[in-house]
Amino acid sequence: MTRTGRMTVASTPEELREARRPCPSPFGLVPTMGALHAGHAALVRRARAECASVGASLFVNPTQFGPAEDLSKYPRTLGRDLELLEACGADVVYTPRAEEVYPDGFQTFVTVERLSVPLEGASRPDHFRGVATVVAKLFLAFAPDRAYFGQKDAQQVAVVRRMVRDLGFPLRVVVVPTVRERDGLALSSRNAYLSPAERASAPVLFRALSSAREAFDRGERSGGRLRTAMRSVLAREPLAEPLYVSVADPETLEELGEAAGDLLLSLAVRVGPTRLIDNFLLERGRWETGILEG
Ligand code: AMP
């Protein structure tokens, strides 16, 4: 166990238990894979504002990566991450090794069945099983009262909320708006992979979502036509290869023929070799489209 200023860094479950014990309630947890940016900082600051103690985890979770995905080259910036967490007011940071989270012979997984199948799940079949399993383990290890997740990963939010209800975790899930660059690109650790030309194309995700939102605001309610609005913006960007565009119920993730109440506009696009995702959420008649930085 080490201390940086007033923050404790625990790297084993035993150290985490010791660091967690004296923390006053409510305890807020921010799970992350590191390579932190202003989006993660927004989660930690929100937790700091709402909770008496704040914990964060830095763990590149192998079980949520597919065999052909970027586990080995996922950016790792531990020193900077700890500085950012300390600056945002975290009390406890957990940096476990994979062998500790997944001991030899590991075979107990959490599967949120139907919500893990569409959208991201269609091309990443075991992704949400890995997410749900590690988040469940972090909930058991930290015993938080609140857990903070980004709207950026809307399907992850749906999966975690369902798991919390189904397994009866005694905590509240808090969702924080997507933090964006000034041109609309959602901050992501994977943006570091983009070449300058790809970076210039990447705001097409935001433009596509914006065009569907504008169509909705002009009265368009057909799910099909809202999807077409997104696709036609993406088609004009040569470096962007659309993987899916979706107009779905935010809780069940079922595709909507006709938009009636809440809805989630979401898409995944390959820009060069990098897979980017983004979404806008309409909740109780109000759009949640994120916050432009700067
Ligand atoms: P990750 O490290 O990518 O697993 O993300 C950790 C948490 O930060 C997740 O809850 C993400 O949804 C959230 N997050 C990632 N990017 C952003 C962003 N641009 N704005 C808000 N939250 C984000």
Summarize the structure.
The protein is an alpha/beta fold and 294 residues long.
Your description of this structure?
The chain is α/β, with parallel strands linked by helices and 294 residues long. The chain folds into 2 domains: 2-176, HUPs (Rossmann fold), CATH 3.40.50.620; 189-292, Pantoate-beta-alanine ligase, C-terminal domain (Pantoate--beta-alanine Ligase, Chain: A,domain 2, 2-Layer Sandwich). It contains 10 helices and 13 strands. Helix 7 links the parallel strand 6 and strand 7 (172-176). Helix 6 (127-142) packs across helix 7 (154-167) and helix 9 runs antiparallel to helix 10 (223-235). The site of adenosine monophosphate has 17 residues, from helix 2 and strand 6.
